[in-house]
């Protein structure tokens, strides 16, 4: 059978990995896809690297102009591995307009412009596949779109940024401060020279936006994600969390939730932030640069997906899985394909996203206070006035010669705006020194 021809945009780490795995496992992939899949065109700014990677291959054309690949009538699928928003968005939309299927690993592009891209693909009758956009080699998109399709998804909680997970793992294991471990992550190649997207939770927000849309059948709305990074976490808080039986992880969390004060109104939480998780949970023990996504469905219960979230060949694994899917469905009636966001396009919901102030969860609070009678009573009174109850507490003995100590409180579930109000009141007490540290908690049971 005639091979399906692929045009590859970008020959960086993932592009080279895709070429390598596709060539190495060519026979196996062909048996699964039902016909050969061949990369015949590569557009890249680094022609020398592409020449080295493809040396000896026949029928391969190299160019520095992506438009040349997109415009080729003999290219069936365009694989976009450039990254970023522009020119990637323009290339993807032009490929779709030219009637070509698209495979992309570009989570930022989809989180920001996925609705437009999917609408264009729907109109043209082509597929846009994006397994590699979330969690690298972990097949979480396929699990959400197909494997769990019988379920009403209740919530998702994921470690979906390997750089931040590596930093938190090393801080906990070595006791080193954030800046020291970040420098080590950069030296090892886990973190970019500018690590903002990773350590401030932006990369995780892109991925969470995609998963939430698929899980709940809503349009992608990146602007609704509450995002908080790990830059202000201290080794003291990681140590206290450990004493209390918890680990701190940067989690992306999305869940169905009832709106406070309304018996019948439902909203969707969409948030990325450091989170205390019980140390006995499997996801709390995911260390280093690995990713893990926990999905709770009403029928299946909780399912965990674990693996490398980045890297040349793990990400290539997801790209090629998409190529196989597109190849299998290449000639199928567009109406019979799996919808981009799992739900039929005309069945997407307008369920509102909850503002962060309305989210209900538990909290870790750490405050530096004067070591004198009545201080704890003042703090607990402020919490009680706002219907915030305490689950556990640690009060440390002050170091010799000092009159200040740490109090750590764990609360039961409370509404975020009430916690924020309580913290402001606690910080105004003359016996409390500086800011109250607040970290959200999730039991994930």
Q: Which key terms come to mind for this protein?
A:
alpha/beta, Dihydrodipicolinate Reductase, domain 2, elongated, Rossmann fold, 6-stranded parallel sheet, 3 domains, Alpha-Beta Plaits, 26% strand
Please describe the topology of this protein:
Layout (H helix, E strand, L loop, with lengths): L3 E6 L3 H12 L1 H8 L3 E7 L3 H7 L7 E3 L2 H5 L6 E4 L7 H10 L3 E4 L2 H18 L3 E2 L10 H8 L5 E7 L2 H13 L3 H10 L8 H4 L2 H15 L9 E2 L7 H9 L2 E13 L7 E13 L11 E8 L3 E8 L3 H18 L30 E11 L4 H11 L4 E6 L8 E8 L2 E2 H12 L4 E10 L4
Parallel strand pairs: 1-2, 1-4, 2-3, 4-5, 5-6, 8-10, 10-17
Antiparallel strand pairs: 7-9, 7-11, 9-10, 11-12, 13-15, 13-16, 13-17, 14-15
Tell me what the structure shows.
With 445 residues, the protein is an alpha/beta fold. It has 3 domains: 4-129, Rossmann fold (3-Layer(aba) Sandwich), CATH 3.40.50.720; 141-308, Dihydrodipicolinate Reductase, domain 2 (2-Layer Sandwich); 359-441, Alpha-Beta Plaits. The chain has helices at 13-24, 26-33, 47-53, 66-70, 88-97, 107-124, 140-147, 162-174, 178-187, 196-199, 202-216, 235-243, 312-329, 375-385, 416-427; strands at residues 4-9, 37-43, 61-63, 77-80, 101-104, 128-129, 153-159, 226-227, 246-258, 266-278, 290-297, 301-308, 360-370, 390-395, 404-411, 414-415, 432-441. Strands 7, 8, 9, 10, 11, 12, 13, 14, 15, 16 and 17 form an 11-stranded mixed sheet that branches. A 6-stranded parallel sheet has the order 3-2-1-4-5-6, with helices on both faces. Helix 3 links the parallel strand 2 (37-43) and strand 3. Helix 1 packs across helix 13. The protein starts with a strand and ends with a strand.
